[in-house]
Amino acid sequence: MQELHDAPLAPLTTFRLGGPATRLITATTDDEVIAAVREADDTGTPLLVIGGGSNLVIGDKGFAGTALRIATRGFSLDGTRLELAAGEVWTDAVVRTVEAGLAGIECLAGIPGSAGATPIQNVGAYGQEVSSTITEVIAYDRKTRETVTLTNAECGFSYRHSRFKSDPERHVVLRVRFELEDARGLSAPIKYAETARALGVEPGDRVPLAEARETVLKLRSGKGMVLDPEDHDTWSAGSFFTNPILTDDEFAAFHARVRDRLGVDAAPPAYPAGDGHTKTSAAWLIDKSGFTKGYGSGPARISTKHTLALTNRGQATTEDLLALAREVVAGVRDAFGITLVNEPVTVGVQL
Fold first, then answer.
1. Which one is catalytic: 23, 69, 160, 301?
2. What are the residues whose beta carbons fall under 8 Å from the beta carbon of 214, sequence distance 6 or more?
3. Is residue 239 among the annotated active site residues?
4. Disulfide check for 164: which of 120, 142, 299, 321 has CB 3.0–4.6 Å away?
């Protein structure tokens, strides 16, 4: 277990932003993770858990406490059952499942971060969410001071949410178990319309696993959503805002504002989101509010490839980023009456 003091945290995040931590511990085994967490809890020291750093916005003053970087490794396949250590690189794990001929997470290719973070956010993209394949999450419970195994139902999954996100101080994810599908080298049914179009198939069709993964990677790359140190459009947390889910009444009021602003024939994106709810597009809202690709004149700007990504152009501070985010939130609220919610976790700052 490595320990550093006054350690920079910016290099551990995809934004490359944030000040130092009082102490940084890198844990490579579950026992080391648990020991570090227990020590922090016993001494009343604030604790920040870091995986791949792809979903963190850390304040410029840094973190006054112990930052715990989880660097555990473990990839185990037993038939269609997959177990990943929390520190496993997610993109690498997806590659290995595709190579093994197993379907279920192939459309989650290219998502930066660690395996342990996926249940926290209920990571999803291109028609797949990890909640559809996760069977169990093994975690350290800081309240009971025990290692617990939580079933899928106990994880409380919903759109980009889980019990881990609603109560972030309670559990530290150690391992994640999945049940994948052996479809004889084919993908899970393609659900996302954009992916189906790119593949030249109909929604519901299956395609070779490698083809599905490669197509998603191309789509993500075109939006700056695959990490590239030379491309500042990827110095981001991916989608900065979640897609709003509105009640029927809220959506009707929103639709009326769209017609007033854009014309009587204008129709916003609308996707079923459960009984009495409709999901709309945050990217559409941002664009139609006047924040187009590349918006901004400072060191933090909207991506030139995708309006949903806020980026560090190389010299930004966290405050630069937050100023841009607040401007976007205010603009969308003024235009359409919807308040966007940030997807990344903020540390020491608020939007």
1. 160
2. none
3. yes
4. 120
